[in-house]
Amino acid sequence: MNLEYGHLRVGLIGLGLEAYWEQFEGLEQRLAGYLSEVERRVISSRRLVFNFGLVDTPGKAIDVGHRCRQSDIDILLVYVTTYALSSTVLPVIQRAKVPVVLLNLQPGEAIDYAQLNRMGNRTAMTGEWLAWCSSCPLPEIANVLARLDIPFRQVTGMLEGDVECWRELEEWLRAAEVVHSFAHSRLGLMGHYYGGMLDIATDLAQVSGRFGLHIEQLEVDELSALRADVTDREVERKVASIREFFAVGEDCPVEELARAARTSVALDRFVDANAVDLMAYYAKGTGVPANEDTMSSIILGTSMLTGRGIPVAGEYEVKNAIAMKMMDLLGAGGSFSEYYAMDFAADLVLLGHDGPGHIGIAEDKIKVRPLEVYHGKVGRGLSVEMQVKQGPVTLLSVVEDRQRGFKLLTAEGESVPGEILEIGNTNSRYRFSIGARRFVEQWSAQGPAHHCAIGLGHIAEQLWKVADLLGLGFDQVC
């Protein structure tokens, strides 16, 4: 991603009513202080916050709407600090033209009724109440936005001492960061589809338009040419890196390690030269020995790229490269997987793939295994074997949707210990709350391609927020 655009740009306004400021001494300053507290809690090393202050008149709303556009914000937080007219916020939202989150945040758990009633001065008492009535205009604002078909999100809670409230807002901001990152990312596509895998084929105009990704068509010949220029010294250094990154078995031939290392060096240069942020690839390489040599030695290099935040999906699985990138941006990993088998005795599902694997979610160091054949593919070489860390996991698939272009399909489960297939593939055992039979049937009924991305933690709610900001559909199996 272009580092010039590396920060999420967050617009922040507070809503008020100008007539209140003269009527209730100190109210404006108090509400501005609450707004500053929100700013303090939202700002981070990944975000720039543009605090436009309290918007309390339609004229000021128009001005702030222009400032939102000038500041190139990605998302707008509207803190409803007290009663405010819907006409005061509508111009801001209409001109900003970005996703909107309405913040309904009280200063605390409840008004101190006894203390307020002891104040004696009803004007002062009313001013105190108005500092707590953020929920008052919420239906009015929601009514107007709904009638105009303007989407909005809500976060309701307390300014202080409300972990759930701030977790909810953080999830919206992280979702916005994913959308922002996609809009500045380059998806590299190298080679061609795996012949006959009709489920993998997708509409690249929809991919670019719905996710905001720039798509770069890449040539295997370019990678092979870069590979031919790799020096023996560079190969030696990469072999050392491979031995540090992976658990390399003694049965791995030295010449195969060198072959994989040469391809890995070339891959690093290839990705840098094309400014690739995520990639899908497949090519047989038959008929061109250099290309076959490249493609049959690519798995270690793609696993290393995936581990450093540039997810790579094999079999030209464009949709799964996107799912893997989404998982990675959320800090959940995202490893390339498909159904391997069902264990009816243990009520489990086995999922895995011949690579790439994601080091960030492996239970132990990823093992490197030599394979005499890549099932269904050309050549032989080294592959990776790993189990996903035991504990909660989420599965994610990007699925075609006739109404919205795509939808996100998710399921929450658990990676559990036990025997796996020691066949040089990434495979793990998964348990789902609805049982293995119902999971496989209900997942497949949603029409996904046969690949999915697996990430750590239960993050379906977070992924729903990403889908919402992207304007995509969303389904959760369990």
Question: How is this fold's topology laid out?
Answer:
Blueprint lengths: L7 E8 L2 H6 L3 H16 L4 E9 L2 H13 L4 E6 L5 H11 L3 E7 L6 H5 L4 H9 L7 H10 L5 E6 L4 H21 L2 E6 L12 H8 L2 E5 L1 H9 L3 H14 L1 E2 L5 H20 L4 E5 L6 H7 L3 H9 L4 E2 L4 H12 L3 E11 L4 E6 L13 E5 L9 E5 L5 E11 L3 E12 L9 E7 L3 H10 L5 E6 L3 H11 L2 E4 L2
Parallel strand pairs: 1-2, 1-3, 3-4, 4-5, 6-7, 6-9, 8-13, 9-10, 16-19
Antiparallel strand pairs: 11-12, 11-18, 12-17, 13-14, 15-16, 15-18, 16-17
Describe this structure in words.
- Keywords: Arabinose catabolism, Carbohydrate metabolism, Isomerase, Manganese, Metal-binding.
- This is L-arabinose isomerase.
- One of its GO terms (cellular component) is cytosol.
- One of its GO terms (biological process) is L-arabinose catabolic process to D-xylulose 5-phosphate.
- Residues 334-471 form the L-arabinose isomerase C-terminal domain.
- The chain has helices at 18-23, 27-42, 58-70, 86-96, 113-117, 122-130, 138-147, 163-183, 204-211, 220-228, 232-245, 254-273, 289-295, 299-307, 318-329, 436-445, 460-470; strands at 8-15, 47-55, 75-80, 100-106, 153-158, 186-191, 214-218, 247-248, 278-282, 312-313, 333-343, 348-353, 367-371, 381-385, 391-401, 405-416, 426-432, 451-456, 473-476.
- With 478 residues, it is α/β, with parallel strands linked by helices.
- The protein has 2 domains: 3-183, Rossmann fold; 186-476, L-fucose Isomerase, Chain A, domain 3 (Alpha-Beta Barrel).
- Strands 11-12-17-16-15-18 form a 6-stranded antiparallel beta barrel, surrounded by 4 helices. A 5-stranded parallel β-sheet has the order 2-1-3-4-5, sandwiched between helices.
- Strand 15 and strand 16 (405-416) form a beta hairpin.
- Helix 3 (58-70) runs parallel beside helix 4 and helix 10 (220-228) packs across helix 13 (289-295).
- The protein is elongated, with a radius of gyration of 26 Å.
